[in-house]
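Our preliminary data section would be incomplete without showing what the modeling component actually yields. Below, a chain of 127 amino acids is followed by its predicted structure, encoded as tokens that our downstream tools consume directly.
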Amino acid sequence: SGFTAWRNSHTGILSVDAQANILIAGVVLAENHIGVTLHFYKDDVNVFTGIVASKIIGSIGLNTGKCTDLPDSVWNRGRHCQAFTATDPLGFRTTCGSVISQLYRRVGVLIPQWTNKPKTCAIAGRF
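Predicted structure:
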């Protein structure tokens, strides 16, 4: 609650295998590759996630005096998408290795995922 995530090369707010309800409030997410993405691992069908009183901005128009999205939120094929991967640690390749592959350079919110299989080794019992 109440913080800023700006120009993260991948994700501003991330949860993996969350089991609690999550409410994101009063945050500013600007120029992140992905503003917020939440992954839940829960057996219960009564789950909740929400974002309130927050600003999520793809690219800031600093010269216009307004916080508006600029055209570089759309990924142009053949240009680097600035998403870090194991094979592209600086995000300079012209192919995009992101989960929003080949579509956008920046996305504010990826829809939360609820699964019955954990992603992390500790929760899955693979240690």
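The chain has a mean pLDDT of 77. The first strand starts at residue 4 and ends at 6. Preliminary results of this kind motivate Aim 1 of the renewal.
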